[in-house]
Amino acid sequence: MLKATSVLPAGSYADPADTVTLDFDGRHRRRIALTGNGGLAFLLDLPQAVALKSGDGLLLDDGRVVAVEAAPEPLTEVTAGDPHHLLRLAWHLGNRHLPAMIEDGRILIRRDHVISDMVRGLGGAVRDIDAPFDPEGGAYGGHSHSHSEAHGHAHSHSHGSGHSHSHSHSHTHSHEH
């Protein structure tokens, strides 16, 4: 079976041999057998799981490329009366570690009636739509299902010369799922 062992960024290849259409979860894989929309079967066999974006190419071991396309899926469009309000809503969504696709004037998230109720309670508007979902990669290098917890530690002391100063440091760690 043909293998795809590397990912080419969108725009870096021409004339794909086939296209594979996958939803958000289906585009975060390391190893899986896939069949393109045109029938080309291959094994995705990457060194580590990556978040494939719509437009990325999968380089097959015979030199051909299979284009990745984001499948439409059930989403909720979050909007607000002004950019500042939308920014506040983005903060609340981010505080819940939700994958979010940020566009001009709207935020797209996966459908979740509890989150929709929260957004409405904060004065935002929600509308259910079906669209491709390519959320922000975030600070953790893509869709990694990771959560980071920061722990800060600080201490201060004074010197005999009558002045004092503080030292602080922090570290983060992530939990991979």
TrEMBL record:
It comes from the Bacteria. This is Urease accessory protein UreE. Residues 153-177 have a biased composition (Basic residues). One of its GO terms (cellular component) is cytoplasm. The keyword Acyltransferase does not apply. Residues 1-66 form the UreE urease accessory N-terminal domain. Residues 134-177 are annotated as: Disordered. It is found in: Cytoplasm. Belongs to the UreE family. Its main location: cytoplasm. Involved in urease metallocenter assembly. Binds nickel. Probably functions as a nickel donor during metallocenter assembly. HAMAP family: UreE. The keyword Nucleus does not apply. One of its GO terms (molecular function) is unfolded protein binding. Keywords: Chaperone, Cytoplasm, Nickel. GO terms for biological process: protein folding; protein-containing complex assembly; urea metabolic process.
